[in-house]
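Fold this: Ionotropic glutamate receptor C-terminal domain-containing protein
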Amino acid sequence: MEVVDFSSSYALEETTFALKKIGMKPTMAYLLYPFDVSVWISLVGAIVLSSVTILFLFGKRLSLSDIFLQLFSSVVRQPLQLGNEIQKMKIVFSAWLCFASVISLCYSASLLSFLTVPVLDLPIQNFRQLSQAVQAGTHQSFVLKGTSTIPFLLKSQEEHLVKLGKIMEFHKWYYNISQLIKGSHISARTVQIQSEMVFDLFYGAPDFKANVLVSKDHLAVWPMAMAVNKNFCCKLKLNRILSRLQSSGLYMKYLHDESIKILHGMSREAYVRNDNKQLNIHDLSGAIMLLFVGYSISIAALCVEIIYFHLRGKVKVSDCVRRHFFEK
């Protein structure tokens, strides 16, 4: 430019998006959270393979089901009850007990962390996932009216960004400044595209960080600077002051202080606090449900055994009567 010059950059304008965090995962299945699917499959495979190996070494003195149940019980910290057979293969069972102890301790430690720290479902994390969600119709994406975000999306080289821009332009998904202050366009299914600095200003307070997720994926990054006259005499001094301001963190402190003021000006329903809570019956519902399922299976097995042996006894009695009748 012939007339206007710029100072050194004092901040970055990073365009990203924000949405409310998705609710907690159901606690009914929290007992499975400490390990992923591959670990559970590997653990079951290890128990089955070890059971077959021990059966091969023992011969037919023990059944496969008995060995499997004994090895499984050792993983849940129950003693092995295989009699004198353990003494004959101390090395094999010592290795298995070490493995079972490590698995049990890792599971217990991980389960405790899942009980004390809430587990959240994984939300949308980048613009590719956002574009896919908008195309699927599960989410809506809004931009501030008058900004160049949609034209930037339409001129992008990335196909998913172009599709996102076309859908937003077709539905006219815009919002104004008053709606930005109210936060009416941020929910679990409604996404707001804006500068990360604006999100830090309106949702950067600690209480808001528990409720609003700001993506780490950036659509574009622009340096921010001051426009000065081409013949401005104190440009070097201005750059020195801006550099000191940036290095001292005063600019971010100002944003944080203003964010606190905005937070106090809103109603308490607009944000969520992270208060420590005691474990309740809902948190332990998975363990209680597992207990009732185990009892139900045990009672059902007992009833089947009673009916089976009762019918078997009747058959034996009828056979004895029939043989006695024919002998006479």
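The radius of gyration is 33 Å. The mean pLDDT is 78.
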